[in-house]
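It is worth pausing here to work through a concrete case rather than discussing structure prediction in the abstract. The textbook approach is simple: state the sequence, then state the predicted structure, then interpret. We follow exactly that order.
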Amino acid sequence: MKIEKVEGMLIGSDLIGANYVVRVTTDTGLSGVGQSGAWGFPDAAAKVVEQFSQYLVGQDPFRIEHIGQALYRLRPFRGSIVSGALSAIDIALWDIKGKHFGAPVWELLGGRVRDRVRLHLFIVADDPEGIAREARAAAEQGFSAIKYDPFQVGYQDHSMARLIEGTRAMAAAGREAVGLDVDLIFELHRKLTPMQSIAVAEALAEFQPLFIEDPIQIDSIPLQAELARRFSSPLANGERLNTIWEFRDLLAAGGPQHVRPDLGLAGGLTGCRKIAAIAEAHHSSIVPHNFLGPLLTAASVHLGISTPNFLTQEYILRDESDRPAETIFRSSLVREGGYIPAPDTPGLGVEIDDSRLAEAPAHYLPATPPLRDDGYPAMAV
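Step two, the predicted structure:
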């Protein structure tokens, strides 16, 4: 079997403008699909895959590790765009291999270590009343963990006291709504300076979060690690990191913390298995980042089913919507309450409905960064 064709598709997304999806087809007619997590610049990832395809055509699709190493070393410049392109290819190759052997991908990754994957639902609201409403609804649906951004509108211009009190009010609303039997995750979206984050984390500790996520921008791995030592609550990091070496440095410098690789950005299933092993050696769990739709959800579930130090999987109800951007992905995975059972469909269990592609044209989000009152750019998420 040889790779015969590599196709790239920019599929419209109501949330981010465009998702970049790759389909790899072999000379036997078997095909697999994968997706890039480099969502900020999807057309850049597409251009990288175009160059990758010159190497890929004619290769044995089962040599997944070999292909990944070759692509990573193909050119001297790397980073999130290259890793995002490589990740999409990797996921597609695992899909092909599973289909060929008639087995779900988790079976090829070592088999089940659990029967179902626990989900944490990402909810969105602008005020404490909205958070309480969404949190109660999530608990009623069976989710045992929820995640939300606890900052109120205009946080970037608030005084420190107002920032902390507003954040506490949002955190309190979630905890009061669901009680002690639902875990809370506070997603800070890289919006704070290091000193702000320490003060905010101290205020959030009262609400006993499962973890606090991404308080600062990813500019400095040593500084991320320092915060893990300073926070009294568990910290989670990594959705914007690209390689096993970055995760190694993060954990070696900061000790145990939850790591958040994105399968569409950190080397696909192959790369994230390695990251999970590095985390396991540091007594850390993995909590895969995920919000780009059913395809990356499926890949993340296969990893969770087969990975011992998996904790919980990020999930959004948008995956279940009837909008074209989601229904283009025909997924065999079915949520049951706050879990997704181990799928038994060969491969990933997701196909692209080509007949509906025209219903979700790609577009680009406005290039308008958020500004503070003084005109200086605020932190971008």
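Step three, interpretation. The chain has a mean pLDDT of 95. The first helix runs from residue 42 to 56.
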